[in-house]
Amino acid sequence: METAQLPAPTNLTRLPTAERAALLDRLFEPCVPLHTLSVSLLQERTFESYDELISSIGLQLTALANSSSTKDTEALRSILAAHPRLGQNKVESTQSQSEQAQLNTGDESSGQSLTELNHLYEQTFPGLRYVVFVNGRSRASIKDDMKARIERRNWMAEQHAAIKVCRPPSERKEQLIEFVQGNV
């Protein structure tokens, strides 16, 4: 599905399971637990827009975050950990590659510092990856935010911050919609 254009959102219910899973991989990150959570949603419900689909998946993730079930917590952690580390050389999804391109430029000491902060973040919040809206932000701004979030040490806030990347505010929604529309 990576080289093909995206189907109209109103046609997703007709896609075979494997194609619905590939669509989720393209919109988010490759992640089997996300398939388990959301592939059936794409078959059961007709979406008028990708914006509506993304918001619905965000609601599913929020429900997992608010659940007291250990199974739900583990599923959410697996889904959130599918997001690539910032500055990572190998990034699976086209969307993340585009967003992170600016972070993979600059001197090596900046990249090393980002690598060290990723490690510290993951030690502070086991099972989570630091995620933030990258587009248009400087590396220094991102590192400052990462340090502040590590110092805050608020697990629930970090889960919800990661989910917001899946339920993007208008800036990222517009970028994602442009990406989708360019591929429909």
Structure overview:
By secondary structure, this protein is mostly helical. It is 62% helix and 0% strand. It is built from nine helices and no strands. Helix 3 (50-66) packs antiparallel against helix 8. The longest helix is centred in the first third of the chain and has 17 residues, at 50-66. It is globular and about 45 Å long. 27% of the residues are buried.
Question: Any descriptors?
Answer:
single chain; 184 residues; mainly alpha; 9 helices; globular
List the SSEs and their pairings:
Blueprint: H1 17-27, H2 32-44, H3 50-66, H4 70-80, H5 94-100, H6 108-124, H7 139-152, H8 155-166, H9 170-181
Distance between the termini: 12 Å
What is Rg? 16 Å
Task: Estimate percent helicity.
Answer: 55-70%
Main beta sheet: none
Measured by DSSP, the beta-strand proportion falls in under 5%
- The overall pLDDT, averaged over residues, is 80
The poorly predicted ranges are 168-173
Looking at the structure, what is the overall shape? globular
**Count of helical regions:** 9
Query: What is the count of β-strands?
Result: 0
H and E string: HHHHHHHHH
Structural class: mainly alpha
Brief overview:
This protein is mainly alpha-helical and 184 residues long. It has 9 helices and no strands.
